[in-house]
């Protein structure tokens, strides 16, 4: 079996995906073709915000969001150390400093109770990540941000389709940023991403930055970059939206079924914790286990692919060594990095495959004990 099965989805959607791609090949508008605008309209409606600005990746979207907010040298952005590199990387690329805050031991998301203590006169934004597909407690984060007049950027690369208190991920803060990397909950057949906001001015700035800071052809009021989404990727995403609601439902069902199987067969294993008022789209279904590396090896040997999201928190990455935050600085994030193990997950995984995975898990636990 595969860690993430994308082939069944393609088989299901083949005729619409192929037709959509063929239409692009016929009209030939590969850059900013009509599918890009169509996708942006559909996604803005889905998320429930005024503006969607598509872009070339979920890394580029973070960069564009922070550029639109004017973040640069000497500024500080508060974020989590337990995330994919992009989150901290784009802060540093702009010459700003990522200010890490340890994570909540239940969810692995930024711990809102620890944010206020690190706010300084240089703080320019708070950038939480909706890890594994679940949003952190945005009511608390937004209240702190409002008190200090700070914008909030949600790194929703893993959570497109998730809900928090009746609203969708990407609609919960000043700017929402997501990724369409193929293995994300809404994945393209290449790189892609999108930004969401209700703020007209920020939307205009992000649209300009996406295309070399231009407001009309060859006229550049600001510095930008080439951050456009390919028309072909927009076409693929439009076809994939056809069954996206079903996929979100399936992801939740699959996770519930894993929860039940695992709590019966392996009661010592900690299954994902979803906070009240939130749903997860389970970009990853991630357990916490003892002897993680031994367990992962045993599972791989019995034919169950696994992954570790993430083995090294950002403050311990060589790229951030100048921050001088050694082992012990963020103990909860460090414990998660030692203990997390993600199982095969996706809308098309079958109950038989899930039983096979949990059987292998039970046996692997016994073999390494
Ligand atoms: C995947 C991911 C990104 C980067 O998205 P790309 O489209 O691969 O550039 C950023 N942040 C988080 C939390 C991610 O999981």
Throw out a few tags for this protein:
single chain; 369 residues; alpha/beta; Aspartate Aminotransferase, domain 2; Aspartate Aminotransferase, domain 1; 2 domains; four-stranded mixed sheet; 11 helices; globular; binds pyridoxal-5'-phosphate
Secondary-structure topology with pairs:
Layout: H1 7-27, H2 34-47, E1 51-55, H3 60-68, E2 76-79, H4 85-93, E3 97-100, E4 123-127, H5 138-148, E5 153-155, E6 163-164, E7 167-168, E8 175-179, E9 193-197, H6 200-210, H7 231-240, H8 244-265, E10 285-288, H9 292-301, H10 331-339, E11 340-343, H11 351-368
Parallel strand pairs: 2-3, 2-4, 5-8
Antiparallel strand pairs: 1-9, 6-7, 8-9, 10-11
Helix pairs in contact: 1-7, 2-7, 3-4, 3-6, 8-11, 9-11
Bound molecules: pyridoxal-5'-phosphate.
Pyridoxal-5'-phosphate binds next to helix 4.
Structure description:
A four-stranded mixed beta sheet has the order 1-9-8-5, with helices on both faces. The chain contains eleven helices and eleven strands. The mean pLDDT is 98. It has helices at 7-27, 34-47, 60-68, 85-93, 138-148, 200-210, 231-240, 244-265, 292-301, 331-339, 351-368; strands at residues 51-55, 76-79, 97-100, 123-127, 153-155, 163-164, 167-168, 175-179, 193-197, 285-288, 340-343. It folds into two domains: 7-242, 3-Layer(aba) Sandwich (Aspartate Aminotransferase, domain 2), CATH 3.40.640.10; 244-368, Aspartate Aminotransferase, domain 1 (Alpha-Beta Complex), CATH 3.90.1150. The radius of gyration is 21 Å and the shape is globular. The longest helix has 22 residues, at 244-265. Bound molecules: pyridoxal-5'-phosphate. Pyridoxal-5'-phosphate is lined by residues 57-59, 83-84, 86-87, 129, 155, 157-158, 179, 181, 191, 193.
């Amino acid at each position: 079996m595969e860690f993430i099965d994308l082939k069944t989805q393609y088989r299901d959607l083949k005729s619409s995906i192929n037709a959509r791609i063929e239409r692009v090949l016929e009209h030939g508008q590969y850059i900013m073709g009509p599918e890009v605008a169509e996708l942006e309209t559909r996604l803005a409606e889905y998320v429930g915000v005024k503006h969607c600005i598509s872009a070339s990746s979920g890394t580029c979207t973070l960069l564009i969001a922070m550029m639109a907010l004017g973040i640069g040298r000497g500024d500080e952005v508060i974020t989590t150390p337990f995330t994919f590199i992009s989150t901290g990387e784009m802060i540093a690329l702009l010459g700003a400093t990522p200010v890490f805050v340890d994570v909540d031991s239940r969810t692995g998301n930024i711990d809102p109770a620890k944010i206020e203590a690190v706010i300084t006169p240089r703080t320019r934004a708070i950038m939480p990540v909706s890890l594994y597909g679940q949003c952190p407690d945005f009511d608390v984060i937004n209240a702190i941000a409002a008190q200090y007049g700070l914008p909030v950027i949600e790194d929703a690369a893993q959570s497109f389709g998730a809900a928090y208190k009746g609203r969708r991920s990407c609609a919960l803060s000043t700017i929402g940023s997501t990724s369409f990397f193929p293995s994300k909950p809404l994945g393209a057949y290449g790189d892609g991403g999108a930004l969401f906001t209700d703020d007209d001015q920020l939307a205009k700035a992000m649209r300009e930055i996406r295309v070399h800071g231009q407001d009309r052809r060859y006229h550049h009021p600001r510095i930008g970059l080439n951050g456009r989404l390919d028309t072909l990727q927009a076409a693929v995403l439009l076809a994939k939206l056809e069954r996206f609601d079903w996929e979100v439902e399936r992801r939740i069902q699959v996770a519930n079924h894993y929860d039940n199987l695992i709590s019966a067969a392996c009661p010592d294993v900690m299954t994902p914790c979803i906070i009240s008022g939130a749903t997860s789209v389970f970009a990853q279904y991630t357990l916490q286990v003892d002897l993680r590396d031994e367990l992962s090896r045993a599972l791989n040997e019995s034919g169950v692919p696994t992954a570790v999201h993430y083995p090294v928190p950002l403050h311990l990455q060589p790229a951030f060594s100048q921050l001088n935050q050694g082992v012990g600085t963020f103990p909860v994030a460090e414990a998660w990095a030692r203990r997390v193990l993600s199982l095969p997950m996706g809308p098309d995984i079958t109950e038989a495959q899930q039983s096979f995975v949990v059987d292998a898990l039970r046996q692997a636990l016994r073999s390494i004990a």
